[in-house]
Write a structure and sequence with these properties.
45% of the residues lie in helices and 16% in strands. By secondary structure, it is α/β, with parallel strands linked by helices. The protein has two domains: 230 residues, 3-Layer(aba) Sandwich (Rossmann fold), CATH 3.40.50; 154 residues, 3-Layer(aba) Sandwich (Rossmann fold), CATH 3.40.50.720. Helix 2 crosses helix 5, helix 3 crosses helix 15 and helix 15 packs antiparallel against helix 16. The termini are far apart.
Length: 419
């Protein structure tokens, strides 16, 4: 049975449409292309089974095909129900990759796809949000023994992994790709910053200039969202629980206040924390008519949707990916993309050039785990700096940018305590 026959996709006939999107992304991913040239010849993953759970869109497809070209047998599923694109799934299924994914599946179907991916008995894993690793440890420990290790893409997943490691239950090494410089400084800041507003703008078709944007959380994703909001002409308020990050937001020129105060002023609210209930039932009565709520975190828990539904007297879909909540006093609040990550659920995700760096890092870290898993042991590790720097160097080279190298005398100076 070939990959198309084994796959579970919505419509295999969408493959040509998906292939055009994948090819467009590939044209703008020079770092991955450079890796492909080498790995497709060397085949370092020959004989290995790789399971991937990522947002299933065009850039992800480029990574999956790179890993396939490196010799692996690849199975892929989505990491969020609304970020899967059916035409991409079809294109991958006819390209030799097994796919278990559909756009907007029922919760039980979404989980079934994850389990089917794991039942291929993978040697290596790429996870986004920690669902594959969590299911392996909590529900399918019978599939763990063959797993050498893997990589985690995002903040939420790393939080789950650190908790698993702290409890002493993590069974294999995982690389915290999200914490690499080439990831959070560029992907989280510039990628999230642009793609969140791409999703909001295409969904609402409303002007941002002159309005007030409340950014909840000032990590690297929050920094990017706030920076782009400022560039679009908005007034920006930041809410935080971390005094250092709050100080940074203040020094960056943004207003800083508690959510209970910020709720009175926002036209747009964007959550970027990875935590639950950062906008909750106590905040909705304070919001003005027409306020728009969006989430940029991995799971749809940052905005308390249950409380919003309980306070509303009526709900309706007023535009694709916009749910209107009519409150008892006549105000209307709007939730984008069911509270799921707005840049992918209501957009195409990060720009191709940004994901080029992130996915090159994923591929290089996967190879590192493959080669060093026994030495690493069952723990969460940071991306080795030489891999992080190599991705940045590849990127600079692709842009025609050169930098200086230290001279032998300078290296000696820096290594000495004597002046």
């Amino acid at each position: 049975m070939n990959s198309a026959e084994k796959s579970i996709v919505r419509d295999i006939n969408l493959a040509p449409q998906g292939r055009l999107k994948i090819d467009w992304a590939r044209e703008h991913m020079p770092v991955l292309n450079r890796l492909r040239e080498r790995l497709s010849v060397e085949k370092p993953l020959a004989g290995q089974k790789v399971a991937i759970s990522l947002h299933l869109e065009a850039k992800t497809a480029c990574l999956a095909e790179l890993i396939r070209d490196a010799g692996a047998e690849v199975t892929i599923t989505g990491s969020n129900p609304l970020s899967t694109q059916d035409d991409i799934c079809a294109a991958l299924a006819v390209s030799g990759i097994t796919v278990f994914a559909k756009y907007n599946p029922a919760p039980e179907e979404y989980k079934y796809h994850l389990i089917q991916t794991l039942e291929t008995r993978p040697d290596l894993i790429i996870d986004d949000g920690g669902d594959l690793v969590s299911i392996l440890h909590a529900e399918r420990p019978d599939l763990i023994d063959q797993v050498k290790g893997g990589c985690e893409e995002t903040t939420t997943g790393i939080l789950r992994l650190r908790s698993l490691e702290k409890s002493g239950e993590l069974r294999f090494p995982m690389v915290a790709v999200n914490d690499a410089y080439s990831k959070f400084l560029f992907d989280n800041r510039y990628g999230t910053g642009q793609s969140v507003w791409d999703g909001i703008n295409r969904t609402t078709n409303l002007v941002v200039a002159g309005k007030t944007v409340v950014v909840v959380g000032y990590g690297w994703c929050g920094r990017g969202v706030a920076l782009r909001a400022k560039g679009l002409g908005a007034r920006v308020i930041v809410t935080e629980v971390d005094a250092i990050k709050a100080t940074e937001a203040h020094m960056d020129g943004f207003s800083v206040m508690p959510m209970a105060e910020a709720a009175k002023y926002g036209d747009f609210f964007i959550t970027t924390t990875g935590n639950k209930g950062v906008i909750n039932g106590s905040h909705y009565p304070l919001m003005k008519h027409g306020a728009i709520l969006a989430n940029a975190g991995h799971f749809n828990v940052e905005i308390d949707i249950e409380a919003l539904e309980q306070q509303a007297v009526n709900t309706q879909t007023v535009r694709k990916d916009i749910t209107e909540y009519l409150m008892e006093d006549g105000r209307k609040l709007y939730l984008l993309a069911e509270g799921r990550l707005v840049n992918l659920a209501a957009g195409d995700g990060h720009p191709a050039e940004i994901m080029d760096m992130t996915f090159a890092l994923q591929a290089m870290c996967l190879l590192y785990v493959h080669e060093n898993h026994q030495k690493i042991g069952p723990k969460v590790i940071d991306v080795p700096y030489h891999l992080d720097e190599q991705v940045a160097r590849y990127f600079l080279e692709s842009q025609g940018i050169q930098i200086d190298d230290l001279t032998e005398e300078q290296e000696k100076y820096l290594a000495s305590w004597e002046l």
